[in-house]
Amino acid sequence: MAGPEVVYRLSLELLGNYHLESLDQRIQQQKALYLFQSCVADLDFSFNWYIYGPYSPDLTKVLFSIEQDREKVRAGGVALGKIPNHIREPLDALKNIIDDVPELLSKTHWLEALASVKFLKRRKKPADQIISKLSEDKPYLSDNVVRRALTAVNSI
After folding, report:
1. Whole-structure pTM over 0.90, yes or no?
2. CB 3.0 to 4.6 Å from 108: which of 7, 24, 84, 93, for a disulfide?
3. Residue 108: CB atoms within 10 Å
4. Is 80 exceeded by the pLDDT of residue 74?
């Protein structure tokens, strides 16, 4: 399982920040790191389906451990140095997708759509079943948003 320094560094890379004060911030951390693990490199966290899509209790523990010793973890994250090119390129592509939030949608809901689509695709669900499931489970995500998330996830 990835340590706090790696998780902290990836949060900064993908989201530009590291905050856990609000539910939205915690959802963003979970979804961004799930997308990294499922699209770029394995962090060895186990994710299950939950209210807001993929969720890892072990990742939550690591995220909150960072809060307890932020200065030490921050120094360790910086000490990791330059991210290798074979990780940097797909990480940047993922960041661009995360940042391409559809108009009138929050970043949290966009990340939830992306991560939920990826999670269901990895379980071999066809596009029509993904759209149907997310329409049922997450009525605040329109079919158009889910379709856009499908296109985005297919490009990674």
Report:
1. yes
2. 24
3. 18
4. no
